[in-house]
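haha ok so turns out i had the wrong file open the whole time. this is the CORRECT one, sorry everyone. sequence first:
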Amino acid sequence: MSPFRVVFSTSGTKGSQSLYLSVKADTASFAGPGTTHIPASKVSWTATPVGRGRGSGGTLSSAAYSQVYVSDNNKTGAFDMTWALASIAAAGLRSGTHTITVRWRVEAF
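then structure:
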């Protein structure tokens, strides 16, 4: 899957500030047809900084937010994010549309 670019610009009153981005699944599994559902933990990502900052790879969870990126005191910047879905060998999994809502947390300090 191709990465998508996240671009940000913050404004602080004094000095520089760091931007922290993290994600969390709203539910423990995807919604979809049938009674067998794909666990959120089958979703992972990589985050590659464009310029300064630190990207973190991780696995999606509904239990806690997972860090994706820290800007390291930059007021502007970007990172490329690529999502991946691990192979699924679940008996009873039906074809069709499977969806999950991912919530972003954005913090500036």
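The chain has a mean pLDDT of 89.
again sry for the mixup
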